[in-house]
Amino acid sequence: MDDILDKVVSQQDAFKNLVSKIPGFKGYIERGNRRMADKLLRESVSKSFETQYQRLSSIERELISNGELAYVDDVEGAAIKIRQFIDRVRTAAYGYAGIFDAIKINEAELANIYQYDNYLLSLEETVSHAIDNIEASVGSDGLPASIKHLTKIAQAALEAFNKRTKIMQGIEK
Asked: Which CA distances in Å does 70 have to 63, 64, 132, 150?
């Protein structure tokens, strides 16, 4: 997360650097940088999961061509959960609300949101391994269990993201 924030800060123009020296305005600039860093992180999460979603589409086509139609619906169920996750992450509110926004996020809540975002990013590797297991299980007795495992992981990702949303809305801490 710090790398993304550093990237945003390093790309500030001279005007922002000058204005950040005005009392009270520096904090606003820093919060704006955190907001942009949060957006970049969420874009990264959604892009990495998009790759995994595409892999599931390939698996569905393979199942159809192998005549294993009974499993297509189950894989599609997992794919739908991953698609929901991608869409929610991509369209989520930024990690810091601006002065006139309805939702206000303090620094402690923002740090908590970053932890969720980092967790969500780490889930991509878990999803990738689960999809690897499905690919390896096509045509074997282990296919139903591997699909069920992926569905469970996709549901956990959705639940973690829902908790992030509740923190942003001030419903949970």
From this structure: 9, 9, 20, 17
The DSSP call for residue 97 is -
Give the closest residue to 153 by CA, choosing from 56, 18, 67, 60.
Answer: 56
- What are the pLDDT digits (tens) for 49-106? 999 999 999 999 999 999 999 999 999 999 999 999 999 888 876 554 444 444 556 6
Query: pTM here?
Result: 0.72
Q: Domains in the chain, ordered, with CATH?
A: 47-168 (1.20.120)
Tokens standing for residue 120: 């969500």
SS3 13: coil
DSSP-based three-state secondary structure for 93: coil
Residue 90 to residue 99: CA distance in whole angstroms: 22
Half-sphere exposure of 27 (CA within 13 A, CB side): 5
- Up-side HSE of residue 69: CA atoms within 13 Å toward CB? 1
